[in-house]
Prior knowledge:
This protein is of the alpha+beta class. It has helices spanning 72-85, 109-123, 130-140, 194-204, 211-228, 231-250, 261-275, 299-305, and strands at residues 8-19, 24-26, 31-32, 36-53, 59-62, 65-66, 91-98, 152-155, 168-170, 178-183, 281-283, 290-295, 310-312. It contains 8 helices and 13 strands. (3R)-3-hydroxy-3-methyl-5-(phosphonooxy)pentanoic acid (PMV) binds next to α2 and α4. It comes from Marinobacterium marinum. InterPro entries: GHMP_kinase_C_sf, Mev_decarb, Mev_diP_decarb, MVD-like_N, Mvd1_C, Ribosomal_Su5_D2-typ_SF, Ribsml_uS5_D2-typ_fold_subgr.
Amino acid sequence: VVKASASAEQFAPSNIALCKYWGKRDTELNLPINASLSVSLDYLGSHTRLIPIEGQVDEVWLNGQQLQPGAKFSRKVSEFIDLFRRDQLLYFRVETRNNIPTAAGLASSASGFAALTLALNDALALDLPSEHLSILARMGSGSACRSLFTGFVEWEMGQREDGLDSHGIPLDHHWPGFCIGLVEIDAGEKATDSRSGMQRTVETAHLYQSWPLQAAADLSRLHQAIAERDFALLGQTAEQNALSMHATMIASWPPLLYWQPDSVAAMQKVWRLREQGLPVYFTMDAGPNLKLLFQREDRDTLLQHFPDLETVEPFGH
Ligand code: PMV
């Protein structure tokens, strides 16, 4: 029984997958059909503060604004805290602030649920090891299990039905000079969230059958690229992996196309720059925005072509 309950504040970084998580084998526990690999975004992410309150319901604040208890994010947060609350009367004011430039249109659910998990661990004095925290964060949002760690992180799919072996594991590799650039196409909320998008793809796209094989092959290529610091291999693998995931989405019914005309224009710009000899690649998630992968020495050249690019160095400057 949890008795202690104090205020707590924690930070967790956002993460970008180089090999994507797409498809659940268990929708309750958020168990993936394939393993994935991401890189955490250093200081870009979520700060979450928990303050115990009297009352029968949590208060959820996002970027300084209180949300209605019925709002989707509020409900998800409260249901997540239920995992820790069980039968006890234990409610919180939850304040989340994302320092991810909202304009970049980056999903913040991964960093948000990771920071909330860390804050609950403190507030309730649970003292859980990071693997357990990663498992808990996974229940809030699958990709959140990778945001418990910095640098390159693999999410092992695991074999067990209870999901106790499905969590993030940090890779023991640094890559100074490795850069990510956020290209904003549209910062608005996406029409189809990743949960329903995955479900539709798994249930209706025949093409999805090839996805687990593609993801497994890409994962081992990424391990090789990271171990050998082979940037071209990493970039090519990540870009092909993202496009393969989008191919399965497009092959769903009703079709799921997250791209906008400007997304395609940005992809073509990347391909043109690469033809001209600039080693730049992109990846995309369940939305219209692009994330560019490049190396520090090419940053200034790239900024001439993408002047509004928000850049991050996941392994510091
Ligand atoms: O963690 P979720 O349920 O928001 O799903 C994330 C899905 C992708 O962003 C498209 C891929 C990934 O691995 O992050």
